[in-house]
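Internal tracking record. Fields below are filled automatically when a chain is submitted to the structure queue. Please do not edit lines marked as system-generated. If the sequence contains nonstandard residues, flag them in the REMARKS field before resubmitting.
Queue: standard
Priority: normal
Entity type: single polypeptide chain
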Amino acid sequence: MTTVVALLHRKEMKSTYSITEGQAKFPQMVQEAQEGSVATITKRDETVAFIIGRDRMAALVETMEILADPEAMRAILEFEAGKTKFFGLEDIRS
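SYSTEM-GENERATED OUTPUT FOLLOWS
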C-alpha cells in the first residue's frame, strides 16, 4: 500500500473532462485514478466532480481525521516547535 506522504506529494497529471467526454472515457479516467491522477469533471466549464482512486481517497480521509483531532494537532505543533522528546529502547526498558 502506498504511504500517505507519497500520495499527497506525488507529482501527477490532472485531466479535465466535460461530462460528455467523461462518459466516453470513463474506463480511462478510472485507470488514471488508480495510478494516482485526479480526473476533473466539468459542466459548462464549471468543475462539478472529481474522480480519485481509493488509495488517494483513503489518504485524504486519514489527513482530515488527523486535522480534526485536537490532541493529534497539539502533538504535531509541539513536534514542529521542537518540544517533542524522543527516547531510545534502552530508555524504555529501564
